[in-house]
What does this fold into?
Amino acid sequence: MKSWRPPEIKALRAVNSDKSWSWNTRFIGVPMLHNYWQYHEMGRILELNRHLNGIAEIGAWKGALSIYLGLWGIRLGIPVITFETDRQLLAPIEHILKRLSVRIYGDCFEGGRIEEFIGQRGPIWLICDGGDKAREVRTFAPVLAPGSLISAHDWLYEIFPHDVEGLGLTPYREDEWMAMNMGLATWRVV
Ligand SMILES: C[S@@+](CC[C@H](N)C(=O)[O-])C[C@H]1O[C@@H](n2cnc3c(N)ncnc32)[C@H](O)[C@@H]1O
It folds into this structure.
């Protein structure tokens, strides 16, 4: 019997073509509205930005990304919070988020929670993936502490360059934004 060998680089190239990085797969059985490459890129961003003191996600949906971020929070020893207006969506995994110490809040535009988090933590990473990404970035970018990062998912689908004009944000790792069918844009707050 022939022994198993790692695939040739040429074969891997086909696997790594953009289209093969599908959205709508699952992470530990939880449906994702993003793809696995995003976990790789987010991991790189966190490894390169050890000064961040917290992570806030807007728009948890069913919570796959919230679980992933919660694991990073434990690894880095920083708090993770998430916002979701339809809390029922998170019911099947609330026990996981609780064990990961991920706090869940409702509407990101109500209650001043993001401002409070920033006030307590300083530079954080804010991930905008709620119902109105442009409004989320425009509302919260100006209140983020210098050194923070802000990301928006669905780049060029739901949020566009003109939405972030005039906010004074510096693109970060721009070559990666649309790589591998990801669609996640990130800026530095200076
Ligand atoms: C695109 S989905 C999030 C996808 C999720 N992050 C993922 O990748 O699996 C957007 C979610 O944002 C929620 N949402 C919409 N407006 C919101 C708001 N103002 N505050 C918090 N969540 C909101 C919606 O209920 C929906 O579940």
User: Anything to note?
Assistant: The pocket of S-adenosylmethionine is lined by residues 32-34, 58-61, 64-65, 83-86, 89, 107-109, 129-131 (CB under 6 Å).
